[in-house]
Amino acid sequence: GSGDASRAVADWRLALWTLCSVLLPVLITAWCSFQRSRRQLLIRDIFRKSKHDWHYTDLFVQPSYCCVCAQHILRGAFCGCCGLRVSERCLKKADQRFLCKEIVMRGTGAPGSMPHHWIRGNVPLCSCCMVCKQQCGTQPKLCDYRCVWCQYTVHDECMVDCLRTEDCTFGEFKDLIIPPYYLSAINQMRKEKRTSYEKVVPYCRKHWMPVIVLANTRSGNNMGETLLGEFKMLLNPVQVFDLSKIAPAKALQLCTLLPCNAVRVLVCGGDGTVGWVLDAIDEMKIKGQERYIPQVAILPLGTGNDLSNTLGWGAGYAGEVPVEQILRNVMEADGIKLDRWKVQVTNKGYYNLRKPKVFTMNNYFSIGPDALMALNFHAHREKTPSLFSSRIINKAVYFFYGTKDCLVQECKDLNKKVELELDGERIELPNLEGIIVLNIGYWGGGCRLWEGMGDEPYPLARHDDGLLEVVGVHGSFHCAQIQVKLANPVRLGQAHTVRLILKSSKMPMQVDGEPWAQGPCTVTITHKTRALMLSHSGEQTDDDASSLSE
């Protein structure tokens, strides 16, 4: 009896210990998960209510120290506007203790001036003290100061009282920044219903050319989010807009508060984003705001970036150039004009009551294999958008569909299906699979299509002469040969007006990379307007590389 009882007790003990060993980790995990979710809710609540532009990171890319407790931190929160870095547990204190960049100046300061806004610690690598000219941030601790406006840095021991109250000069980019005191003066004048902005500093300054940054965070290689933060650090955050949250037409209304013919807009995105912004600028003309029209520069984040390439801004940005250099390029850029064209597609048919489709073209119109590749690419991207987050993957998919078309030849005998008229004169077409109407020098992600191999004379091609270049291609393989300069296109001519009649069957068409399948129709391309653009002289532009006919 006693042996059975002791065995039963031992069994109960074993069962209890087994239960504890199973339940305890589960309870600990559940408790940790609950605390983590509670902590995340608190962090999100602080982020939502804060005037700082807080972001959370699991790993800082450079050695960082908490601005409250001064401890070394690997992860935590940082402000995308003023650059504060803080540990998770000190976030609430930092949010209450430190002010962020002021978009509009408050308080009673002298008109046309404001003091430095110093932030302690985490100064940029290789920055130099404005007093002693020695390197800052060299000690492994929270040390030295940085002004969030002029970006000047000062050692702890060099920081004196006069620097704390000294007026900020806004540093290297003073000609691009919209100062908070300017916006506060404009606000006051608007309340008083006065519009004589030219009396407000720095409106009257000769070289002031404020920049507005419009970034599409969904373009190409998804760098827009990072760039937004970097531009907010260097400029006034009110100048930087995320086009996924605000439309260009609304963002560009800021131009009406700034000097006439002086504003520069930097569009961070692909050619589609640039077209979107230029359409919004055309709306400004319709509203009678023509004197506020800005000049447009491009930071290419898309896949093709042919317009950016033509204007000298490069074929694609992957972070290789510092944001400071990008702003310098915008300051030094030269103003040029870009022709914009109206593309009207009228469907054929006796009972067709639908209005013609109307597009605005900046780059090119095409019918044939390249439009088919774009159509297949867009259909694939709509099914699985998560796969198309890299410029390399996008180009690989284009290559796949181009190779497929070489074998299938879906667009053959195009010359039998269409009629082409240039300035009212009908053109006899050779055996072709595609026709491309060009406004700019680059096509297909970096190919100079009109130029071809460059081994034969061809007429001058410009993007501001009111002329279109019309070429034919024999198929996808011919397109590939032209891209690697092994073949010339079939140059069909130049014209002020292009008319193309599709007589039968559906064919793929595209305008500036936006494709669709089109039945019998008439396509008419006429001049619409001219856009004010900025050309980067550091790169070869379209006009520099064009050749004259002998």
UniProtKB/TrEMBL annotation:
Pathway linked to the protein: Lipid metabolism; glycerolipid metabolism; Glycerolipid metabolism
Family from the record: Belongs to the eukaryotic diacylglycerol kinase family.
Highest taxon of the lineage: Eukaryota
Species of provenance: Ptilonorhynchus violaceus (Satin bowerbird)
Residue intervals passing through the bilayer: 14-34
Top-rank EC class of the record's enzyme: transferase
InterPro entries per UniProt: ATP-NAD_kinase_N, C1-like_sf, DGK, Diacylglycerol_kin_accessory, Diacylglycerol_kinase_cat_dom, NAD/diacylglycerol_kinase_sf, PKC_DAG/PE
GO BP: glycerophospholipid biosynthetic process; phospholipase C-activating G protein-coupled receptor signaling pathway
Keyword Nucleotide-binding applies: yes
The name this protein goes by in its record: Diacylglycerol kinase
Intracellular or extracellular location(s): Cytoplasm; Membrane
Catalytic reaction list: a 1,2-diacyl-sn-glycerol + ATP = a 1,2-diacyl-sn-glycero-3-phosphate + ADP + H(+); 1,2-di-(9Z-octadecenoyl)-sn-glycerol + ATP = 1,2-di-(9Z-octadecenoyl)-sn-glycero-3-phosphate + ADP + H(+); 1-hexadecanoyl-2-(5Z,8Z,11Z,14Z-eicosatetraenoyl)-sn-glycerol + ATP = 1-hexadecanoyl-2-(5Z,8Z,11Z,14Z-eicosatetraenoyl)-sn-glycero-3-phosphate + ADP + H(+); 1-eicosanoyl-2-(5Z,8Z,11Z,14Z)-eicosatetraenoyl-sn-glycerol + ATP = 1-eicosanoyl-2-(5Z,8Z,11Z,14Z)-eicosatetraenoyl-sn-glycero-3-phosphate + ADP + H(+)
Pfam families: DAGK_acc (PF00609), DAGK_cat (PF00781)
